[in-house]
Amino acid sequence: MINYLIRRLFQMMVVILLSSMAIYAIMNLAPGGPLSGINLGADRKSRLSPEEIRRIEEFLGLHRPLHWRYIVWLLGEDWLDEVGLKSLQRTSCREIPTECTRGVIRFDFGDSWRLAAGQKVIDLIWFRLPNTLLLMTSATLLSLLVAIPIGIYSAVRQYSLLDYAATTFAFFGTAMPVFWFGLMMIFIFSGPRSPWHQVLGLPYLPTGNNYSLRPPQPGSLLYVLGATPGSPLDRAVHLILPTIVLSLLYMAGWSRYTRSSMLEVLRQDYVRTARAKGLVERVVIMKHALRNALIPIVTILTLEIPGIFSGAVLTETIFNYKGMGRLYYDALQADDWPVVMALLFITALLVVFANLLADILYTIVDPRIRLE
Amino acid sequence: MQRDGREILLEVRDLRTYFFTEDGVVKAVDGVSFHVRRGEILGLVGESGCGKSVTSLSIMRLITPPGRILGGQVLFDGIDLLKLPEPEMVRLRGSRISMIFQQPVSCLNPVFKIGDQIAEVFQVHEGLSRIEGWKRAIELLQMVGIPDPERRAHSYPHELSGGMAQRVMIAMALALGPELLIADEPTTALDVTIQAQILDLMRELQRRMHTAIILITHDMGIVAEMCDRVAVMYAGQIIEEADVRTIFADPQHPYTRGLLGSIPVMGVVKPRLDTIPGTVPNLINLPPGCRFAPRCQARLEHQARLGNRCLEENPPLFHTGPGHQVRCWLYR
Q1: What is the pTM of this model?
Q2: Which residues in B lie closer than 8 A to residue A278 (C-beta atoms)?
Q3: Pick from A136, A176, B230, B262: CA 20 to 30 A from residue B295's CA?
Q4: What would the pLDDT profile of A253-306 be if each residue is shown by its tens digit?
């Protein structure tokens, strides 16, 4: 087991290193870049001279050749003068040693270029992370809570009316695009002009954002509940729609996983043994069958962990929800490479660790598996 | 309920279990009748697919869709199991009637310790706590000859050999001293030496606990060694029934004779073992007459006497001796 873990950790480092190289290269070799549009729409007076552009490039570290850009991103630039590569350091680093970047290996993801220019990327992430964790965990929990019972029922009563209904729902859930479904939900439930409020006279929901900035308007759910802007209740109400949209999407998948896993298990000999022992059907299903059917589910769930951190790009964008997904979208739009790289790198890290965790969990939930 | 001395424990009458598949109705069990007396071992013999397992699962009422029990009676100690409400049937399973199966390792739940799986029987039927049940489980493991039972109880099924797993299954089945044990090919998946051990164990426990056994097998050697009486099944019906001596001394149905002819005999040199030509009929489209007629050599030999009757009319069971019945027109 210990040997296995050591071997795995070594493999993981190699995988993370290679994947970071790949994403860094793709990012930097893609056409465009942070300075490509800098003079667009500028008149003669505000146009930047090539000299000025070169200075900006130097400040951002873009003057270095690609491989040195990557090495500095990974290891930092503070050590370059000690190995005689002072020319690769930026002027600001050379003049003020505390301005030198220290590289992701020392948890320095650099400063944001555009989104929050000058701010540390890591601070940006710390600020967004709780929002995403809140959204993703509530969506995951809600979807599991609904999908697992549906999946069990669909398997136990295969081809029943409810099974067909669940199947149809699952296809709908997987097939519909979130950006469309999210908009439909906003259209139906959000704002004073929504049919939900206009036709049915029910309190409407906020259209987006994480919390309100102004006191709630009469007729809104926030007003009915008396939520003060920024309070936990206010945030919870803002979570309702994005959570529903996301969990409907997840539910579709989870209910199918549970159904097929359960169907597989129900065919097994030990389920017949459990019945022959004199167990009531409920115990046969909920103990003997479900315990086995959940083994693959636990693994898939573990592999979802990176998603819980990196957020839901589309849903967060549609609902203007300030989480990691929205941050990623905005950073891409703004060519804010340090932010994009940090998010991709953290996701790669989490994917690799989640895989290890899934393998370890597997040995716990399934006594037949041993790591060698 | 006396017949030939000992009390009848189980009587199956005209049992019919069909499977409603997309290809048609499979008449897996079609009018099966037999009985088992207290403490006796009845062998249920036949080729694969002749309905032996479906018969036993029907007795336990463990037939799952698309299968359905369409008719007949299963009288256990005078109660018709087919009419019993499900909660009472559940109480009967594992306490008064138990079952063991062909693939012992896959019949045990892979994620629970075997101690827990045996203890569960006591928890469910006798309301014992897990710890009490575990104690009884260890006693049972000892009884079925598993060495170091305290440690073994903590094993998971995949850590056991096939023989060990079948011992665990037997322990679980006999935990509450059932009156009837249905053993569905209990040794087919095991090595020959292990087969003998398991059969010895079953016979020893059967004598001690006075349990009646329905032993399902296709191995006439096991029948000779274990059984008091034999019922031979073919294509969903019983075609011959007799006590074990009679079957071997005087097999009457051409199929039974064929089965016995296909066993190698010590000291007799044959270039090839005898086989029964042809295959088991498709249970969806059964021939109208005797189900064995298309493969029957005797029918051709006795054509003059029987005419075409075998192909037109399915024979009933004819009594040919004390406790000896044959479903064949030759014995009319």
Answers
A1: 0.85
A2: 90-95, 121, 124-125
A3: B230
A4: 999 999 999 999 999 999 999 999 999 999 999 999 999 999 999 988 999 999
How many CB atoms within 10 Å of residue A70? 18
Q: Check B101 against A272: CB less than 8 A apart.
A: yes
Residues of A in contact with B20 (CB under 8 A): none
CA distance B266 to chain A (A): 37
- Cβ contact (<8 Å) for A278 and B95? yes
- Class in CATH terms, B8-108+160-331: alpha beta
Strand order in the sheet with B24-37: B24-37, B8-21, B67-76, B79-80
CATH number at residue A188: 1.10.3720.10
The DSSP secondary structure of A202-215, one letter per residue, reads PPBBP-SSSS-SSP
Domain spans, chain B:
8-108+160-331
Terminal-to-terminal C-alpha distance of chain B:
28
> How many domains, in total, are found in chain A?
1
> With an 8 Å Cβ cutoff, are A278 and B107 in contact?
no
Calpha distance B144→B167 (Å, rounded): 6
Question: What is the DSSP code string of A232-260?
Answer: HHHHHHHHHHHHHHHHHHHHHHHHHHHHH
